[in-house]
Amino acid sequence: MQVHPGDFILADYDGVAVIPAAIKGEVHKKAMEKLAGENVVRDELAAGQSPREVFDRYGIL
Prior knowledge:
This protein starts with 7 loop residues before the first strand and ends with a helix. Strands 1-2 form a two-stranded antiparallel sheet. By secondary structure, the protein is α+β, with helices and mostly antiparallel strands. The protein is 51% helix and 16% strand. It has a domain at 23-61. A hairpin with a 2-residue loop joins strand 1 (8-12) and strand 2. It is elongated, with a radius of gyration of 16 Å.
């Protein structure tokens, strides 16, 4: 993988991801949308909704 100035690099114990600068904004937007959906799902599960109903409604757990 080539890394260029301005690319965004994420690393942890599981590996490394390189996000090209040209799509950094789009990746961030999609990640925030995913996070918002996961927060809604977590809240509904905590409120007692069944995992099946929550998954059917949002497609994520």
